[in-house]
Amino acid sequence: MFVRARSPLRIGIAGGGTDISPYCDTYGGCVLNATIDMYANCTIELLEPHDGITFVAQDIEQTFYSPLTNEIPLQGDLQLHKAIYNRIVRDYNENQPLPVKVYTHSDAPPGSGLGSSSTMVVTIISAYQELLSLPLGEYDVAKLAYEIERKDCRLSGGRQDQYATTFGGFNFMEFYDDERVIVNPLRIRQNILNELESQIMLFFTGVSRSSAQIIDDQVKTTTSEDKKPLEAMHEMKILAYSMKECLLKSNIDGMADLLKDTWNAKKSTSAAISTREIEIIEDKVLSAGAKSIKISGAGGGGFMMLFVDPVRRLDVVRALEELDGHIQPFRFTQQGTQSWTV
Predict the structure, then answer these.
(1) Of all residues in the chain, what percent are helix, strand and coil, respectively (each to 5)?
(2) Buried b (16+ CB within 10 A) or exposed e, 49-85
(3) Range in 68-82, 100-114, 207-221, 228-242 with the lowest mean pLDDT
(4) Which of 19, 107, 161, 261 is catalytic?
(5) Residue 161 annotated as catalytic
(6) What is the overall mean pLDDT for the chain?
(7) Domains in the chain with CATH codes
(8) Of the candidates 14, 82, 103, 338, which lies 20 to 30 Å from 62 by C-alpha distance?
């Protein structure tokens, strides 16, 4: 028996960082994001008990094997795969071990800024959900993914990625204390989507980065004696509301202008968000005709999002071709995580 699942990666448009505790617990956070047609993929094969448990992360060329057990120690490679297995067995299979072979791969590398790690967690959960016919709704899947990453594996990060890939499409998300999350799906007219796809470019900087240091800096904003990072977080939240309004009113030029402010505010939350390499790219594309840029995700590398007038697009393409990295074609997608039986 085989089951498969896939979940879309996301681009963060505004408000990213305000979904991280303790900021969102104290002040409330909000994020505007959208999923795109790049995916995390999972296949699970149900085996015989004597075959044990195997995880194969094909894109990063890591494999793990264990004899059949109901709990795998969270050490070494593929900790997320192990932690998901442990939670599924404990909470949803009466602590009975599962003889499975789990294959995974992602269309984006870890550290891409597109939420690839959280998207993979949701994808694997969705595959187990299909395998065991689990009665989990979107909020249940996203919350479980969050708990596995942040509590079981103790990985730094926010809340938006798990909900973005689970729900799919354009969403305005609100984050409060007691881990309360409200996802507001946005209905975007096709002509607005067409114009956004005409104006937004994704460029992979060629650098995958760890978000831990940046996120740790943002965690400290609520208690730091330096109030500038905290004020920047407040500004990012306000800009997220403004960006949502521009989006719903088809004010794409307004979104491009707000992206400048969002990028400047974002850089004020951690010194590690922008680098010399990013500044070189920024100067080059703005000189070539881009209207505004922002690093997707925590920062420090990964994918860069650009607003470019379609008339100047080829000028910007030529400028980017002189740099390391590559332009990533994409389309927005309306579907969240999906799973099916083969």
Answers:
(1) 40, 25, 35
(2) eeebbbbbbebeeeebeeebeeebeeeeebbbbbbbb
(3) 207-221
(4) 161
(5) yes
(6) 93
(7) 2-187 (3.30.230.10), 190-327 (3.30.70.890)
(8) 338
